[in-house]
Design brief:
By secondary structure, the chain is an alpha/beta fold. The chain is 42% helix and 14% strand. It has a domain at 294-424: Rossmann fold (3-Layer(aba) Sandwich), CATH 3.40.50.720. α9 packs across α11. The structure holds nicotinamide-adenine-dinucleotide and uridine-5'-diphosphate-xylopyranose. Nicotinamide-adenine-dinucleotide binds next to α1 and α5. Uridine-5'-diphosphate-xylopyranose binds at residues 149-153, 208, 211, 215, 249-251, 253, 256-258, 260-261, 319-320.
Length: 429
């Protein structure tokens, strides 16, 4: 099939690579000319494992372009994968979605299936259908389908090849679109969950809210564990063996971040509140997440007494390992807090960089080893594999202090202690 994808971000580029691998011809459209020019030269603007290789492998089947009209004319299917960030009040900013639909509307002369893959609040697929109709476009020229995406950054390609399910939200029991989606994803070995537009939109928000709830739950349990000499890693292990609970997303740490959980929880909260539905669970989940860094600042203060003027190394800038994405990264919140307290902050991340407006908050190093030289303490903020297996002998010899604050419970406590260092984790005994 000939498929158009609007928005060359994390989701759009992954979808482009995977659908091309499935044998489709893909036109990937992006407003940012620099991104498109880079992509045309084979330079991928984000770091995502296997993405560059898969795009390269399928380059004959992929066109990168800013020309939406020409691409839409060639395709019967249009995926919309533009960003849907939060507004100040927690509601979702649909500006990019509307701009994509404005562009699409100019080229709707033949029937197209428009698939909204972006995460959008309940009611949006319906609104977009009405929006096109209000522009005078005949409803016989388009069908809109909700097809939310569940990939995780850092394993996006794997996740898209191996989803748990494909969710399809249809308007008016639209069997035509269902058949088209089944054809597009013919290579997937996962059940199709077919529902209406709002059902699909809600599945996406409920999933992210539930996963964030698991994380805040275990972070809350970690706080209790610390007071009762229990180890949250053992508790999570015990909890996770119960299939009704499940072992995943029970890793205590400095809180969740990223481009999805924070904004999607706010958005769901907002959608509920405008209908006067109270969501105390969602609010508690966010409160725990907002306050999770406090205990690290407290632990550092207890160990080093005065923080002002002390040199401290923060390992990690990205919101999770194996990505360069820094959107809502708890590591950056931590760096900001330490900077505000007058700490001389030094950081290292294998792929991610501090944003321009925060570059003066810390010295970012090119190597791991240079980042902790003469530091009073190391704080692990992102669980990159290279931080798990550090050369602790070198760390001990290079540090001025002895504290290793493992904000992700990702290093072996015993190994660290064997090197004469002091280990503090999250909810550890
Ligand atoms: P992103 O910001 O990385 O990419 C969006 C891209 O769309 C940008 O490059 C932007 O320039 C482009 N764009 C905006 N308006 C455009 C237009 N009119 N025409 C062409 N291009 C346009 O966003 P993302 O992280 O890929 O997320 C996209 C959507 O998918 C969001 O709704 C997000 O919530 C959802 N989602 C993201 C993830 C994830 O892990 N990143 C996972 C699942 C779902
Ligand atoms: C998330 C959802 O998992 C995915 O299904 C959705 O499509 C997009 O949002 P992503 O944000 O890419 O994916 O990464 P994820 O692995 O979910 O991690 C999100 C945050 O939670 C990270 O900051 C991560 O460090 C944190 N996390 C995750 C924990 O603190 N503990 C855990 O056990 C798992």
């Amino acid at each position: 099939m000939e498929i158009c994808i609007i928005g060359a971000g994390y989701v759009g580029l992954t979808t482009t690579a995977v659908l091309a691998e499935f044998g489709h011809t893909v036109y990937c459209i992006e407003v940012n000319e620099k991104k498109i020019n880079d992509l045309k030269r084979g330079k991928v603007p984000i770091y995502e494992p296997q993405l560059e290789e898969l795009l390269q492998k399928n380059k004959e089947k992929i066109s990168f372009t800013t020309d939406i009209g020409e691409s839409i004319n060639k395709c019967s299917v249009i995926f919309v994968t533009v960003g849907t960030p939060s507004r100040e009040d927690g509601s979702t900013d649909l500006t990019y979605l509307y701009s994509a639909f404005d562009e699409i509307s100019l080229w709707l002369t033949e029937f197209k299936t428009i698939i909204i893959k972006s995460t959008v609040p309940p009611g949006t697929n319906k609104s977009m259908s009405e929006y096109l109709a209000e522009k005078g476009i005949s409803v016989s020229l388009f069908n809109i389908v909700s097809n939310p995406e569940f990939l995780k950054e850092g394993s996006a390609i794997y996740d898209m090849f191996h989803p748990d399910k494909t969710v399809i939200g249809l308007g008016n029991d639209d069997k035509v679109s269902e058949a088209i989606l089944r054809k597009i994803y013919h290579r997937l070995d996962a059940p199709f969950i077919v529902t209406n537009w709002n059902g699909a939109e809600m599945i996406k928000y409920a999933s992210n809210a539930f996963l964030a709830t698991k994380i805040s739950f275990i972070n809350e349990i970690a706080r209790v564990c610390e007071e009762y000499d229990a180890d949250v890693m053992e508790v999570a292990n015990g909890l996770g063996t119960d299939p009704r609970i499940g072992a995943l997303f029970l890793q205590a740490g400095i809180g969740y971040g990223g481009s999805c959980f924070p904004k999607d929880l706010q958005s769901l909260n907002y959608s509920a509140s405008v209908k006067s539905v109270h969501t105390p669970i969602l609010e508690a989940v966010q409160l725990i997440n907002r306050t999770q860094i406090d205990s690290y600042i407290k632990k550092l203060g207890e160990h080093l007494s005065l923080l002002k003027g002390k040199k401290i190394t923060v390992l990690g800038v990205a919101f999770k390992p194996l990505t360069d994405d820094i959107r809502h990264s708890p590591a950056i919140d931590l760096i900001t807090r330490l900077h505000t307290l007058g700490v001389d902050v030094h950081v290292f991340d294998p792929k991610a960089h501090l944003p321009l407006d925060k570059r003066h908050f810390a010295t970012q190093h090119k190597t791991l080893k240079s980042s902790y030289l003469d530091s009073e303490a190391i704080v692990i903020a992102t669980d990159w594999p290279e931080f798990r297996r550090m050369d602790w002998k070198h760390v001990k010899a290079s540090l001025k202090g002895i504290l290793i604050l493992d904000g992700r419970n990702c290093v072996d406590k015993n190994v660290v202690e064997q090197h004469g260092l002091v280990y503090k984790g999250v909810g550890r005994r």
